[in-house]
Specification:
Blueprint (H helix, E strand, L loop, with lengths): L1 H4 L2 H32 L5 H16 L2 H11 L9 H26 L3 H9 L4 H31 L11 H12 L3 H30 L11
Length: 222
């Protein structure tokens, strides 16, 4: 174990990279979740079709294949992405497809009477979503978004396959340099668990803040 601890600087570097990749990908996924999820309610068929194509493509293909495509295939087409950027786009777009279904389902869970009330008040589409539907739908989304965030953290481990210096990549370096397998991977397993625990705590805190005064029971993320 002491031999592995000598490599603590690169483990710290890998942890920082993993957190950066997770946070940046989560932001991309969150934006796409709302854009695509709400596009499913558009009155324009072209927008709805585009949202469905994105959803089915990224949900129906492997995240690893998407990541390899971003990093190894796009350069053949003249598009060169840095490893971290390719990882962020692949992870964000992949999780965004699942998140868009969370948004759509949460909005649809709002009682029909609320939709009718917004129409009766002569609200525009923007006002209906901004003041009636989304305030009721967002608390429903948060627990599932928390679970997707943990899945995103675990997905970032495959980013080492496109040379991103994350925790898994650093563990591989230590394994090659020391011929040890148990110790480096046991350490990064603990680190992943600690990061996941922090993310769960943050999501639960946000959920409690949003649901405060709404009389909504918050389920903790898994």
């Amino acid at each position: 174990m002491d031999q592995v601890l000598e490599y603590s600087p690169i483990l710290i570097e890998g942890t920082i990279t993993t957190i950066e990749l997770t946070v940046a990908s989560a932001i991309v996924a969150l934006i796409l979740s709302f854009v695509v999820g709400l596009s499913r309610f558009s009155r324009f068929a072209a927008i709805r079709i585009a949202a469905i194509v994105y959803l089915e493509f990224f949900r129906g293909t492997s995240a690893i294949v998407q990541m390899f495509f971003m990093f190894y295939v796009l350069p053949l087409l003249g598009v060169h992405l840095a490893p971290l950027l390719a990882g962020i786009i692949a992870c964000g777009f992949n999780l965004g497809s699942y998140g868009s279904e969370v948004v759509r389902g949460a909005v649809q869970s709002v009682p029909r009477a609320q939709h009718e009330a917004a129409i009766a008040l002569n609200y525009t589409t923007y006002q209906k979503f901004r003041y009636v539907l989304l305030p009721q739908a967002i608390p429903v989304m948060i627990p599932t978004f928390g679970n997707l965030l943990i899945e995103l953290l675990k997905l970032t481990a495959v980013a080492s396959l496109i040379t991103i210096s994350d925790l898994t990549f650093m563990a591989q370096i230590i394994r090659v340099q020391t011929a040890l397998t148990l110790e480096p991977f046991l350490i990064i397993m603990v680190i992943y668990f600690l990061i996941a625990s922090c993310l769960v705590g943050i999501v639960d805190f946000i959920a409690k803040k949003i649901n405060k005064g709404r009389n909504i029971t918050v389920r903790k993320g898994i």
